[in-house]
Write a structure and sequence with these properties.
The chain is an alpha+beta fold and 502 residues long. The protein has 3 domains: 50 residues, Cytochrome C Oxidase, Chain J (Irregular), CATH 4.10.91.20; 261 residues, Beta Barrel (Catalase HpII,  Chain A, domain 1), CATH 2.40.180; 69 residues, no CATH class. The chain is built from 14 helices and 10 strands. A hairpin with a 2-residue loop joins strand 3 and strand 4.
Amino acid sequence: MSEKEKNHKITTSSGIPVYNYEDSQTAGPRGPVLLQDYFLHEKLAHFNRERIPERVVHAKGSGAYGTFTVTHDITKYTRAKLFSEIGKQTRVFLRFSTVGGEKGSADSERDPRGFALKFYTEDGNWDLVGNNTPVFFIKDAKKFPDFIHTQKRDPYTNCKSATMVWDFWSLNPESLHQVMILMSDRGTPFSYRHMHGFGSHTFSFINKENERYFVKFHFKTQQGIKNFTNAEAAKMRGVDADHAQRDLVEAIDKGDFPRWDLKVQIMTEEQASNYKFNPFDVTKVWSQKEFPLIDVGVLELNENPDNYFAHVEQAAFAPAHVVDGISFSPDKMLQGRILGYPDAQRYRLGANYEQIPVNRCPFAANNYQRDGAMRIDGNGGSKPNYFPNSFDDTFADENYKQPAEPLQRDVYADWFDRNGENENDHYTQAGDLFRLMTPEDKANTISNIVGSMRGISGEKRDLIINRQLCHFFRADISLGLGVAQGLGVDVTQHATGMVHPN
């Protein structure tokens, strides 16, 4: 038998050739199935386990491999090796996603879009896990489970609930800036190729002199921004629920490789300590007039995964994964994600999830972690599983030590109000965003808000609407008036706080 014939035999998972792939072994042509037909058991048992737990958020996504190429010198800000010289290329994997929907939801739902990048660098994998928006709904990770519960299904009806959504937003005005983006046409991108990406959080750069700079990451699409209107998005949900997935795969297959320009904003430690608002508040943006965008490089997606499950579904990202020259900030949401994301991946994929090819560092990875389900790298062989030891020459490299982070004097551990003094302006940037919109965008945003808020029901309906209208009026009078009129609210009584929907 030729080698080719041997390689084409159907076998069990343990490599044993299968005699009959389609018929179960039975006692006679019409008799009962025999327990000894192991391959029948293997097929059914594996089939029952084909679905790993879907992500709690960002369940439905699309992904592709590509390259990041440095086009401008930023080495005065960071010593990260992937930025070390102009022309340097780093392989990347990018996963796009919706946030609140399940794995079978439609790509054109009104929702933020995930923008999660994995850079395979020689100093390890750097995960920049952001969205297509520069801000988020909340500023403290302690609120994250509650927020996501409102975006999922009502525990009584098992349906999506506008009442839950707007009740939460109206009780948490810090969400207003992100709500304005979501309710504009930016909440329904035409495709993943036609939207920007952001790191969203504030991170830090560290240069060769151990100087720290704070940084925000912006990926600007070269394809141009293109959005659905609400009506177009609703239509696409019925025409092709997988429109964004199909669009990405087909574009790359035909060589129309999508590209984004990476730009950064830089803030010094001194500027951060004296800034007019908390620069680590993820519900706020930094002024691009004060902190202009600096060109860095070009991201290109040019390779579709050959198997969706192996690459896209098993891709695992964590903001905890930063490399030398890139670090964190006091952003409270980021600090919570440093804990929450790796924990979610261990639950979903197992303790050894970083050995899965899409997640594996292509360069050396040495540690004393051992065992656990699905260990596939030899488990360290006969080498010691403890450190220090007398048998190998591994060491902790002091060259990768980060500079000490200065802390405020006389700081006491406590539970501080995230919206305390100088932290509670939720309206200026949200209003500025609305005032920057074109008349058409303003009209669409108001229409989208009204359409969503009409779904609020129950005995608390008037209370929730009244509370949210107060936020809209504080952001911009014309915004508040437009939403109130769309809901049939008597705004003449608004000054007394008594707004009654008709």
